[in-house]
Design brief:
The structure holds two protein chains of two kinds. Chain A has 20 helices and 18 strands. By secondary structure, chain A is α+β, with helices and mostly antiparallel strands. In chain A, strands 9, 10, 11, 12, 13, 14, 15, 16, 17 and 18 form a ten-stranded mixed β-sheet that branches. A six-stranded mixed β-sheet of chain A has the order 4-3-5-2-1-6. Chain A has a two-stranded antiparallel ribbon with strand order 7-8. In chain A, strand 13 and strand 14 form a beta hairpin. The N and C termini of chain B lie close together (4 Å). Chain B is globular and about 45 Å long. Chain B contains seven helices and eleven strands. Helix content of chain B is 33%, strand content 29%. Classes of the chains: A alpha+beta, B alpha/beta. At the A-B interface, helix 1, helix 5 and helix 6 of A face helix 2 and helix 3 of B.
Chain lengths: 777, 239
């Protein structure tokens, strides 16, 4: 091609695109409304994509700041090198988990003491440095529920450089006991390289499924949004075709038309992203708190969004035109009489199942899967979700074709759907795919949660894991904790060693766990138990009845042990908590001659269980405070609330945020789709109203028109989502089961979306069927 | 007018044949719309296709204009088979050589009347100011310059049709195809539109193929071809 011809070709392109642009911004109020619908539709998708594009930066920035204050990988240093003793303690207030770092800086040379980022000076015993959000809580929550855990003076707040997010709960608490605490470490500096261990596979899978479930509907929605006003556009292009535009010109003009709405959507999407980030930063739980400045889309991903969205939009607009032939006298639908084939649509879900089934147990606890497994799982999930998007149009057409006559609204809606189910289906596809994805994620979460919840509660509400401090060693936990207002009972479970007391009897030391029947039930299954009973874990061997044992530190001083006599009829019991991996002999206190002596951390461990009156407000926080006063390093877990792994809780919170955003997209998608159909049908409504059709009949027809595809979409999503959830549950070795609350949420959301979409059409319906509408149409 | 039932279906003005349909047939599903229709159009001639509803006259016009591909027979323009052309060539033909005025104008509702008239020139690549200047001239010539800035939905039916006539004329086409151009207008407005169309076409030597069932509109033509059951049954020369 000569340079002149090339230049003319470019000019031709620009002219056609320009004509399309002109057409999209012309048309007065009607034209602007159409443009706005496209723009708003695209903007919702763009905002979601930008949020996704910002997640890597957000996570990296948070992670960098967490690493900068971390000391897990710091080399221990000894004096005279300046240093600080540190120990991390997990704490919680209300539903919010947070971290406290106990610190004991060198007393002699504070200027040389290392300090973490965001902190001016490390606190000494009786002093605290806290994050702004924790400072706020300290001033608002009753002292016995929070502040009394670390009595002392707040000498400063941690600034942004020392927090993963501005609303994070975090504290450095001064101590004078860490130097003697065997589990504290003396470090020369804060800061550690990123954790190379990465996320456990089950969380990678959750993240992957979550992102796929979130982004696929967004893409479906984007595709639906750029087709808003499709019928009017077809008519317009036919008129241009009449005066001599060829097919290629028509495609370029259509691309130009799409471009304006898409660019408007990009601009609005950028603004919506900024708004969503600001809103998110102010409303997410403190554990997920992030700085607005951290939510920067990765430049490459942002560029991809800016380029890919308009190109996708143009691709969708031009591919939509492949279904029609724009002729000078109108539009001929190529697919008018063509029935959709189902067999190839089934191939996608079949491939999905085929990819997922071989992975049964591949990501179970303890498995060490390669990245290939995760990719295979991702492909399987995407294939199943894409299968929903592909099967739905066929399902809607097939079902609608078979629907018969009924009341007038039903008949009107069925006939409308039979004449063109495509628009309704496109709007509903988003619901179907996202519902299937949500069910899958919900099912997976429920499965993992069920795994983690296997431990019995045994009537207790809280589990205290004392640290290795001297205070914990000799603590009379039942006495301390029973005094807390709202605590109803306290029991301890102590694991230690035992050896036959008779001299000359040889053999390895036994592991012995001592506790009341209720406490023993935390570790083993005890159906029938009374004080004086003894148990051995299934498969284990018990000493002969009557054997006298020295329990405690058999190799130590006589006061470090207590005598116990193995009773007759030691029963076998199954392990109740696989996490504790209980072994050896389990004794109730009646078997022993006295209380178990204080256990050296090297010789065993003690856990404390507390039952509380749940109606007593703040009781768990008061219990935490009481525990902290005895042993600041102890970890208190609310058995009924936080048996779920903390990371899982974070994933669940993230999914909740994603779900809310997604439901907003889906509802917006339906409303945009229905409003678009409404614009196309105004004249028909006016005609129907003109010969006396009541508005409620038309309103009901609109409702059915939305409800029928939604019901089919949700039905399909239930089947696919359940299959997907079951596949994912078997993938991680979790028990199979449905998450009924997710089903309820989806059913309620679908009903709400139908109601919202129907309600959105009512003002237009009223206008079209009013006196002015009848005249104008 | 003089009835000439024996007249063969060719142009009778003595001018060269510009457009010719020969034995054209077309079906819409089971319905046979055209059944071997033949007709010729001479340069500058105003030919009226008349007939009752469903006779096939509009289908014949669409086949002549290259809009509808006939199932059988040929349509030739300047000696070339119109339906053997590619879509791009047929589009260029419509752009350069043909103009259209239909019952509802077929104006683009989003564009102003001025932009609608300028549209064929813009598709040709004529720069915007030049296209608008020439469009305005045509609107003035047809007496509708005052609606230049309005959109089709904001003007009366008669004004809209005159805008459509202006658009059809702006490229100085060889043939204008007009399908019931006055069908949606009252008689006074109809007369004005047909006068404007035929008058302007004659001024620049453009042939007009006019589909109507109104005798008063047909009276403006040079020749009437009566279409019945998908065939051109008789030719009537204007007196």
């Amino acid at each position: 091609m000569s340079r002149g011809a090339g230049r003319a070709g470019v000019r031709r392109w620009l002219l056609d695109l320009g004509l399309g642009v002109r057409m999209s911004v012309a048309g007065g109020r009607e034209g602007w409304l159409r443009l706005l619908l496209v723009g708003v539709g695209v903007s919702v998708g763009v905002a979601m994509l930008l949020v996704t594009a910002a997640l890597p930066t957000l996570v990296a920035e948070r992670s960098d700041r967490a690493d900068a204050r971390s000391f897990t990988a710091s080399e221990p240093v000894a004096a005279p090198h300046p240093g600080v003793y540190v120990r991390t303690v997990a704490s919680q207030v209300g539903e919010q988990s947070f971290t406290v770092v106990l610190v004991q800086p060198d007393a002699d040379d504070p200027a040389r003491t290392p300090t973490p980022p965001g902190v001016q000076r490390l606190p000494r015993a009786g002093e605290l440095v806290v994050s702004p959000e924790l400072a706020r809580l300290l001033s608002t929550v009753p002292d016995d529920e929070l502040a009394d855990r670390w009595p002392g003076t707040v000498i400063g707040t941690i600034d942004a450089a020392g927090l993963t997010g501005p609303r994070e709960l975090f504290a450095y608490v001064g101590s004078d006991a860490l130097a003697q605490d065997g589990t504290a470490v003396r470090i020369g500096q804060f800061g550690a390289p990123g954790d190379a261990g990465g996320m456990p596979p089950v969380f990678v899978l959750l993240a992957v499924v979550g992102i796929a479930a979130l982004l696929l509907p967004v893409m479906v929605f984007l595709a639906a949004a750029v087709r808003v006003g499709g019928q009017a556009r077809d008519r317009r292009l036919a008129a241009v075709r009449l005066v001599g535009a060829d097919a290629a010109m028509i495609r370029r003009i259509a691309a130009g038309e799409t471009l304006v709405g898409t660019l408007l959507g990009l601009a609005l999407g950028g603004a919506a992203f900024a708004g969503a980030v600001a809103l998110g930063a102010a409303t997410v739980p403190p554990g997920l708190s992030f700085a607005v400045a951290d939510a920067r889309p990765v430049p490459v991903l942002a560029a991809l969004v800016v380029l890919a969205v308009p190109l996708t939009a143009i691709g969708v607009a031009t591919s939509a035109m492949r279904e029609v032939v724009v002729q000078p006298l109108g539009v001929v639908r190529r697919a008018a009489d063509r029935r959709r084939r189902w067999w190839w649509r089934l191939a996608f879900p079949a491939v999905g199942v085929a990819l997922l089934v071989p992975l049964r147990g591949a990501l179970a606890e303890g498995a060490n899967p390669g990245s290939f497994v995760v990719y295979q799982a991702l492909l399987g999930v995407v294939a199943l979700l894409v299968g929903v998007a592909l099967l739905l149009p066929w399902a809607v057409e097939a079902v609608v074709r078979r629907l018969g006559a009924g009341p007038v609204p039903w008949e009107l809606s069925v006939r409308w759907l039979q004449s063109d189910a495509g628009g309704a289906t496109r709007a509903v596809t988003g619901i179907a795919v996202s519902a299937a994805g949500l069910l899958a994620v919900g099912g997976l979460l429920a499965g993992v949660q069920a795994q983690l919840d296997d431990g019995p509660a045994g009537g207790f509400d809280a589990r205290v894991l004392p640290g290795a401090s001297d205070a914990a060693l000799g603590a009379d936990w039942p006495a301390h904790l029973s005094a807390v207002d709202g605590v109803t009972s306290v029991a301890t479970l102590t694991a230690t060693s035992a050896r036959p007391a008779a001299p000359g009897v040889r053999g390895d030391d036994l592991t012995v766990t001592v506790g009341t029947c209720a406490a023993l039930a935390q570790a083993i299954v005890v159906d029938d138990c009374a004080d004086g009973d003894a148990f051995v874990v299934s498969g284990g061997a018990a000493p002969a009845p009557g054997t006298e044992l020295l329990v405690g530190d058999p190799g130590g001083a006589p006061e470090d042990t207590v005598r116990a006599t193995v009773p007759a009829g030691v029963r076998e019991a199954a392990a109740a908590d696989v996490m504790l991996a209980p072994t050896g002999l389990f004794l109730t206190p009646g078997v022993l001659d006295g209380p178990v002596p204080a256990i050296d951390p090297m010789q065993g461990w003690t856990e404390v269980y507390a039952a509380v009156d749940r109606d007593s407000s703040g009781v768990i926080d008061r219990l935490r405070t009481a525990v902290s006063q005895v042993d600041p390093t102890a970890d208190v877990r609310d058995i009924r609330v936080t048996n779920v792994d903390r990371t899982l809780g974070t994933v669940r919170q993230l999914m909740l945020v994603g779900t809310v955003a997604l439901l907003a997209v889906v509802a917006a998608s339906l409303v945009v789709g229905v409003l678009d159909q409404q614009r196309e049908r105004r004249r028909i409504w006016a005609v129907l109203a003109a010969f006396g059709t009541p508005r409620r009949v038309l309103g009901a027809a609109v409702m059915w028109q939305v409800a029928i595809p939604v019901a089919l979409g949700v039905g399909l999503a239930l089947v696919t989502g359940t299959v997907l959830a079951a596949s994912l549950q078997s993938l991680v070795g979790a028990p199979l089961g449905l998450n009924w609350s997710d089903l309820a949420v989806i059913a309620a959301s679908a009903t709400g979306a139908v109601a919202l979409a129907t309600a959105a059409t009512l003002p237009g319906l009223r206008r079209s069927t009013g006196p002015h509408g009848l005249r104008a149409e | 007018m003089t009835a000439s039932p024996s007249l063969p279906p060719q142009a009778a003005t003595g001018a060269a044949v510009l457009l010719e349909a020969r034995e054209v047939s077309h079906r819409f599903g089971p319905t046979r719309a055209l059944d071997g229709a033949s007709v010729q159009v001479a340069a500058g001639e105003v030919l009226c296709l008349m007939g009752s509803s469903g006779s096939g006259k509009s289908t014949l016009l669409q086949c002549l204009a290259g809009i509808l591909r006939p199932d059988g027979g040929t349509v030739r323009y300047g000696g070339r088979d119109v339906h053997a052309m590619s879509d791009t060539e047929r589009s260029a033909l419509r752009r350069h050589e043909f103009g259209f005025v239909f019952q509802f104008g077929q104006l683009v509702p989003e564009l102003t009347c001025l932009e609608n008239v300028a549209l064929p020139l813009r598709l040709e690549g004529v720069r915007r100011p030049e296209a608008r200047r020439r469009a305005l001239e045509h609107l003035e010539r047809l007496g509708v310059a005052d609606v230049a800035g309005k959109r089709p939905g904001q003007v009366s039916g008669g004004q809209g049709q005159r805008v459509a006539v202006a658009r059809a004329l702006i490229t100085r086409p060889s043939v204008i195809f007009a399908d019931e151009p006055t069908g949606a207008l009252d008689s006074l407005n109809g007369e004005r539109v047909i006068e404007a169309l035929v008058g302007a076409a004659r001024d620049i030597g453009t042939a007009v193929v006019l589909v109507t069932h109104e005798a008063r509109v047909a009276a403006y033509s040079d020749r009437e071809a009566i279409v019945r059951d998908g065939r051109v049954r008789e030719q009537v020369m204007a007196s």
